[in-house]
Design goal:
alpha/beta; D-Maltodextrin-Binding Protein, domain 2; two-stranded antiparallel ribbon; 12 helices; 13 strands
């Protein structure tokens, strides 16, 4: 069977990965489990891939399923952005503050920051684009957004920047992985030599890791699997696919609950600054300046 996958089937696949349950994903979408199972089977035939492994403990994505789900996340995010933009056009309501943020910042920090701003400006309409750290500066340079947020290790050329938070990357594995019981620190060379579940090139997490390994003289990363979102990487590691290097923001709860184990690494610096960026030579004014003020206040 050929043809393009429909959006509802992609949404179902993503939910199965997130929830680890076909019945839970079906309930979330408001459809019967047999219908959900049939829909996934049709999606597998259309793509020519086995996407879901059904076991007594639930439904888990295969390696191919996780890769497809990672890309599906991006498709669904873009669709949501399209719908949000269309709604703004229908109501003739332009965003008073246009922001672009890297995925980690957008998912784990931006909701709280926008909430702080809206607590003093409840009528403010904020338009947020979620992309990777490579694309955010381009949106700022072309005037598509007023303010950007990146997690890359360097300040993008031609932009003004201000640190808004600190973050660190952690090497994480499933509890059953040999590194979880390693009696010593992992070396940077061992990390570089291991096949890793990685974010795509252009993401701040990938750039930070590659730069740190290069500075340590440990060589380049070896991708086992490249995925388009931190959520997809997280699920792949929990499922035992392989180790990954992720933001502490994304895995803090999993480590506390022992779904993931953090592995200490020596000889490598994985701390990084998260920055706001805007057009060089232009003073921030209005809602953009007020957002930075709200972020500063929230850090105190």
């Amino acid at each position: 069977m050929s043809g393009r996958p429909d959006l509802e089937s992609l949404r179902l696949l993503v939910l199965v990965g997130d929830l680890g349950s076909l019945s839970g994903a079906a309930a979330k979408l408001g459809i019967a489990q047999p219908s959900a199972s049939k829909r996934l089977s049709v999606l597998e035939r259309r793509l020519g891939l086995a996407l879901v492994e059904r076991t007594r403990r639930g439904s888990q994505l295969t390696d191919a399923g996780r890769a497809v789900a990672g890309r599906a996340h991006r498709v669904l995010d873009e669709l949501q952005g399209l719908l949000t933009g269309a709604e703004a056009l229908r109501t003739r309501r332009n965003a008073e503050l246009k922001i672009a943020a890297s995925m980690t910042v957008a998912e784990y920090l931006m909701p709280g920051w926008i909430g702080e701003l809206r607590s003093v400006q409840p009528e403010l309409y904020v338009g947020l684009q979620v992309t990777n750290s490579e694309q955010v500066p381009e949106l700022v340079r072309h005037g598509a957004v007023d303010l950007g947020f990146v997690e890359s290790p360097r300040v993008p050329a031609g932009l003004s920047a201000r640190q808004v938070a600190r973050d660190r990357l952690l090497v994480v594995v499933a509890p059953g992985h040999p590194w979880a019981r390693l009696p010593r620190r992992l070396s940077a060379t061992e990390l570089a030599a291991a096949p890793l579940v990685l974010r795509e090139r252009g993401s701040g997490t990938r750039e930070t890791l590659d730069r740190a390994l290069s500075r340590a003289g440990a060589g380049e990363t070896r991708p086992l699997l490249e995925l388009g979102s931190a959520t997809a990487v997280r699920h792949a590691v929990i499922a035992g696919t392989g180790p990954a290097v992720m933001s502490e923001l994304a895995v803090r709860t999993d480590i506390a609950d022992r779904r993931l184990v953090a592995v200490d690494v020596e000889g490598i610096e994985l701390r990084r600054s998260l920055r706001a960026v805007w057009a060089a030579g232009r003073a921030l004014m209005g809602p953009a300046a007020e957002l930075l003020t709200a972020i500063t206040a929230s850090r105190r």
